[in-house]
Write a structure and sequence with these properties.
Shape: globular
Distance between the termini: 119 Å
Helix content: under 10%
Largest sheet: 6 strands, parallel, barrel
Length: 431
Amino acid sequence: MNSKNTKRALASSALAMLVCVALLIGTTFAWFTDTASTSVSKIQSGNLDVTLEYAAGKTDGQIVWESAEGKLLQFLVNGQMPPQKDDGTYAPILWEPGCTYELPALRVTNGGNLALKYKIVISGIKGSAQLNNVIDWTINDADLGSDHHLGANETSEPLTIKGHMQETAGNDYMNKTIDGISVTVYATQDTVESDSYNNKYDENAEYDKKTVFSVDTVDALKAAAANAKAGDEIVLSDDITLNEIVRFAASGITFNGNGHKITADMTDAQVENLATLLSFGYGTTYCTGVTVKDLTFDGKGGRAMHFHGGTVSNLENVKISGEWSLAINFYGTHGAVMNNCDISSSYENKYAKATIFANEQSANQIVLNNTKIDSIFVNATENGATYANGGIKLVVNGGSEVKELHTNIGITRTFHEVNGGTGGSVLADGE
């Protein structure tokens, strides 16, 4: 009897264990948990904000400081501005061996919240570049181009730049003048602020390599075009007349007309043969990311500008008028964003009288913002096989107007998009 009872007990225990195992398999355990968190202060990057000012005069005995950005500073004669001629320009200052002239006082302000170091360099000469080879430049009687330091929101002491013509300058430097100078401030971070270890993380910070070329002659323009590199800026300081091509080889440069005009003076043959004034890229040299701004073209020429290959460039406040075989040629894959431009021509060229010539493609479009254009010729194929995807080439946004759109004979599809602007009907070449 006891044996039977024992067997029953064992069987019951085994069954109970099986039920428990089954329940455990289908059960989710509950664990006691807890969390703790705290807020982290916002992450904000610092900024560098350097400005250059010059002493424009005095009021009640106090120096009046004005922005020197884009200004062409005049040398002082005995501490005074040189005499003005009847036309409002300044009389040239004649240099001779042993002379010393200085610019109006300058000061540099760090408007940012990071400490910086800076240097001041001569970025362009108005007049003879050769004469500059025998002029020694100093700033507060120290070498020009040496490092200076400013903390956050600090302003430098007044700075005086002097030019001293070497006593050894011989007859090769006669009959040459310098009547102005452009000055550039380069700034970068300084070894002041500390990271988690020390304040040396900025010790290898390099200055921006940007160079500003001040141009007032054709020769100066050619020199700037030959030497400019990505990030550099070419600034017109006067109107010029041009009758030959000037080639630029660097991408990413800025051509700043500075409100001045380039007048074309070309022959009928040059106009007919599409002779170019400014060519950004040529042959197998492709330029892209070029900015042309605040520039006016006038006169008689083949092409005012040629953009060769690449992707997209930017045109801002560019005005072209006069007689142009093609005002602008966007060659190959080149597109553009055009803001506040006005492009016209009275010349009847072979491209359906077009003022702009472009190839059709979807990748690098021509986008017009508040821009007026007489006529655009889009070189296209019906199936889009020649150019990428055969998509939209021209986007006409609000405030823009294209009077005429032309394309190859046999092209029937639309190759433009109008977003609030005015786009003319698509006409086949010859219509």
